[in-house]
Design goal:
It comes from Streptomyces sp. R39. InterPro entries: Amino_oxidase (IPR002937), FAD/NAD-bd_sf (IPR036188), Zeta_carotene_desat/Oxidored (IPR050464). One of its GO terms (molecular function) is oxidoreductase activity. This is FAD-dependent oxidoreductase. The chain folds into 3 domains: about 190 residues, FAD/NAD(P)-binding domain (3-Layer(bba) Sandwich); about 130 residues, no CATH class; about 100 residues, Polyamine Oxidase, Chain A, domain 2. Helices cover about 30% and strands about 20% of the residues. The chain contains 15 helices and 22 strands. Strand 13 and strand 14 form a beta hairpin. The relative contact order is 0.20. The N terminus and C terminus are likely disordered.
């Protein structure tokens, strides 16, 4: 089913966006509404809880942390000057093709006034090469051609040395087969096979692949290809994005918590779930430190580590094969977010966000005071600036203090005016809880449905069969989890939208199809080289 009467998803510009069919049913649950536990208060859990509560289901949402938002949460800190500020796990880009995440946020802000657009997505390499997406056309395939034409990283000799036949899988990515074709090889090996120009590869592909918190040598090429489709060749929403105008709690999660409360949801933050057991007379028992409660259905919306832990303590949940699948989930490498409150301003010509490559562990720099109200007010009052640094996929054995110093040193290389700036305050946030999508791991990832029809899974670790990733995969899986339960109760679910599932260009699709039947594909392990039809 493609499109809608209005021509695409609400708020989107892509008329070819895909609507996933929803089973017909009543608008709300009728008499004696079922009671559902949603375990996890990140994007996936909030999406599932919102849809269920709006349709009359009684929802109890458990979150182990004192706050909602999961990996997009924020919490208060006090700076040395006494200022109360908000710390978080770092910058997040709200891309325009995040249809389902945006639909969730529209519950509390229909016009999405809590978001503001950044004017560019600039990339900079330590060699001096720079790329930008501001002038690149949005519509495929002109965006790819425009990027190659405008980018200084694509030289004629580089283009002539590429093996276009090896790149054919990127021209017609379909979620029904991309993992079959490419999951057995790493993103790094795939780019080697294509002969992608080294400089462009660093700026275009590695910046994206590291947003999965994974070294390209360990990331499945299928995930990279899917990502390339979602953000580039499969969508005409473009690569520009929005960011919240205020810290995550104020802009996003406190309003949504109020929306859930108005729909009768019981929010139990700072309440980790210990186990989930089938009830003796049907339903399930959810156990936490305060006791056990009975529920008609359960949504498991935790990160990989949390899901593994709860399932390991719940020996009668699911079946042996499903439990083994959950046990095989892996967590990506640690990452670091360093936020600096500087006494001096950053050069006003600097972009609000900059992706970096070749600067050691530094992956991007955000001048937070350019768009976030709280940081901007502090900067205006003090004459300083608030800067955030990210290091994705840090080697687990790396010394943390050395890495923190290294990021600040690299900031001085990227923005030399910060070298003499006094650091009023610094916060270094280390985490290691993002899902890893390793080579050959796709078939082992859980789906929304489980062997128990009253238990569903949501989160960015879930295999949805749809072209979605990162925050949008979390929101989409939350909607799908809620819809799966609502089907059992005869209630119509939430509309779900995605970018088109397949190449947009008839010519490019024909080229990709021509290369598939006789061409050799990736096979074997991550070290196997690709020999394409070209």
């Amino acid at each position: 089913m493609n499109g809608r009467a209005g021509g695409g998803p609400p708020g989107g510009r892509d008329r070819r966006a895909r609507a996933v069919p929803v089973r017909p049913g009543t608008d709300r649950v009728r008499d004696d509404p079922p009671v559902t536990a949603v375990i996890g208060g990140g994007i996936a859990g909030l999406a599932a809880a919102t849809v269920l509560a709006e349709r009359g289901v009684r929802v109890v949402l458990y979150e182990r942390d004192p706050r909602l938002g999961g990996r997009v949460a924020g919490w208060p800190v006090t700076l040395p000057d006494g200022t109360r500020a908000t710390m978080s796990r770092g910058f997040h880009a709200f891309f325009r093709q995040y249809y389902n995440l945006r639909a969730l946020l529209r519950r509390v802000d229909p016009a999405l006034g809590m978001l503001t657009g950044l004017p560019d997505y600039p990339l900079r390499h330590s060699s001096g090469l720079r790329d930008s997406f501001r002038r690149v056309p949005r519509t495929p395939p002109w965006n790819a051609l425009g990027f190659a034409a405008l980018s200084p990283t694509f030289r004629l000799r580089d283009l002539l040395s590429m093996r276009p036949g090896a790149a054919l899988p990127l021209l017609d990515v379909r979620t029904s087969r991309v993992h079959e074709d490419l999951d057995q090889v790493s993103a790094d090996a795939f780019l080697d096979a294509v002969g992608f120009p080294r400089a462009a590869r660093h700026l275009a592909f590695e910046v994206f692949s590291r947003s999965f918190f994974a070294d390209p040598r360990h990331l499945s090429a299928a995930e990279m290809a899917l990502m390339f489709h979602i953000y580039f060749l499969g969508s005409n929403e473009g690569l520009l994005f929005d960011v919240p105008r205020e810290p995550f709690p104020v802009a996003l999660w406190e309003p949504l918590a109020g929306h859930l409360a108005r729909h009768g949801t019981e929010l139990r933050t700072a309440t980790p779930v210990e186990a989930v057991h089938p009830g003796p007379d049907g339903g399930h028992l959810v156990a936490d430190a305060t006791g056990t409660r009975h529920f008609d259905a359960v949504v498991l919306a935790m990160d990989a580590g949390g899901l593994r832990a709860v399932v390991s303590r719940s020996p009668r949940l699911g079946d042996t094969a499903w439990r083994a699948r959950v046990a095989r989930l892996r967590t990506a490498a640690p990452f670091l977010v360093s936020r600096l409150w500087l006494q001096s301003p950053v050069d006003p010509t600097r972009p609000g966000f900059l992706g970096t490559s070749g600067f050691g562990a530094l992956d991007n720099v955000s001048v937070l005071s350019r768009w976030e109200g709280e940081a901007g007010r502090w900067a205006a009052r003090t004459g300083g600036s608030v800067v955030e640094l990210h290091a994705y996929a840090v080697p687990p054995a790396a010394d943390r203090h050395s890495t923190e110093r290294h990021l600040v040193e690299q900031l001085h290389r990227v923005y030399p005016e910060t070298r003499g700036a006094h650091v009023v305050a610094a916060r270094h946030e280390w985490r290691a809880d993002c899902p890893l999508f390793p080579v050959g791991g796709y078939t082992h990832r859980p789906t929304v449905r489980t062997p128990d029809p009253a238990v569903v899974v949501a989160g960015d670790l879930v295999r949805t069969g749809l072209p979605v990733a990162l925050m949008e995969r979390a929101a989409t899986s939350g909607f799908l989890a809620a819809n799966t339960l609502l089907e059992r109760w005869g209630v119509r679910g939430e509309p779900v939208w995605t970018v088109p599932d397949g190449g947009r260009s008839v010519l490019l699709r024909a080229l990709a199809a021509r290369g598939r039947p006789g061409g050799r594909r990736f096979g074997g392990g991550a070290g196997r080289e690709y020999a394409g039809p070209g």
